[in-house]
Amino acid sequence: MAVVHVSDTKTWETDVIGSSTPVFVDFWAEWCGPCRMVGPVVEELSGDYDGTVKFVKVNVDEANELASKYNVFSIPTLMIFNNGQVVAQQVGAASKETYKTMIDKALE
Fold first, then answer.
1. Which whole-number Å values give the CA distances from 8 to 28, 35, 76, 93, 102, in the listed order?
2. Is 35 assigned a catalytic role?
3. pLDDT at 1 exceeding the cut of 60
């Protein structure tokens, strides 16, 4: 499953808040070095969890309103939403294993 790019609140409501499966959200920006390091890891994870977890990227420069709503002050910020609620959060780049642990806990 590909990573979906969300840049507006209407798409956010449909793809994240209204999702019947957990959603892994990567808040990032083009100019952010650590975000560019995390990007390929998120792509890999989307393959690993295909059909179980939805993966969404939100460019904070394009979707400032969403970043503000979820208090994203530092990027990358990665969150897992389940039933429209944040159930896990990681601020700053981390290892693939850290993200897998986050996802696995959210799936329990």
1. 15, 20, 18, 24, 25
2. yes
3. no
